[in-house]
Amino acid sequence: MRIKLFLFLLLATSCFAQKTTVYTIGDSTMANKSNPTQNPEHGWAQVLQQFFDNSVVVDNRAQNGRSTRSFINEKRWDSILKTLKKGDYVFIQFGHNDQKENKPSVYTNPRTAYRQNLIRFVTEARAKGATPVLFSSIVRRNFNEQGTLVDTHGLYPLETRLVATDYKVPFIDLQYLTELLEESYGVEGSKKLHLHFNAGESDFYKTEKHDDTHLSLLGATEIAKLVVAELKKTDLDLKKHLK
């Protein structure tokens, strides 16, 4: 009996060790939201697990309100490094909060601190034998009166591209892809990708809600699908585990 139990535990441990972990780090556009069956808001990394087979575990460490600076200063990156192993992946998408000049705890200069923080994520992940993947920030739903989608992120997506090029990091241009997504839904239709509710329309919100940054379940799922489609175009072994 003891031998059988030992073999069972050995097999279970071996199966668990073979799983690849995809750590996702970033801000509220990626993060898990509480009470997902009732809460209309979802992060795109929150819905990513469904697109992988059972050999991959998505460990979503993205957090609301975080920038590269605060994610590091709060030791969130250190906590990932403690368990990050060879063969794992780190999906990196920051920028929404790095640009908040009125909040020194999160703000980073795109050409200096932001760039160096991205480089740190990349080099330290690689030192653990893991593969970093850089993502530019998803766009905000920011249409002007003429119906043109206007950028709100400034130099941050560009700097992400430059780090990806300089350090030969796989790069997924979510800024461009989500521009196309928003435009395909149109000025009014794109509200469905975000959080637009009149008073009394949603049981979750007591008053009206008009949020063009954060995502509905539809918006999160659409962006996760974009990520999956781009992963399939790469040379990463991870794509073998996509459904």
Low-confidence stretches: 5-10, 12-16
What distance separates the N and C termini? 38 Å
Helix content: 25-40%
Query: What overall form do the CA principal axes indicate?
Result: globular
What is the N-to-C order of secondary-structure elements (H for helix, E for strand)? Answer: HEEHHEHEHEHEEH
Largest sheet: 5 strands, parallel
* Main β-sheet, spatial strand arrangement: 2-1-3-4-5
Total helical elements: 7
SS strand fraction: 5-15%
* Oligomeric status: single chain
User: How many E-type strands?
Assistant: 7
- Mean pLDDT level: 94
Structural class: alpha/beta
Estimated radius of gyration: 19 Å
Description of the structure:
- The chain is α/β, with parallel strands linked by helices and 243 residues long.
- Helices cover 35% and strands 12% of the residues.
- It has helices spanning 2-17, 68-73, 76-81, 113-127, 156-166, 174-189, 217-231, and strands spanning 20-26, 56-60, 89-93, 131-135, 171-172, 195-197, 209-211.
- It has a 5-stranded parallel β-sheet with strand order 2-1-3-4-5, sandwiched between helices. Strands 6-7 form a two-stranded antiparallel sheet.
- α5 (156-166) links the parallel β4 and β5.
- α4 (113-127) packs parallel to α5 and α6 runs antiparallel to α7.
- The longest helix has 16 residues, at 2-17.
- 39% of the residues are buried.
- Mean pLDDT is 94; it is low at 5-10 and 12-16.
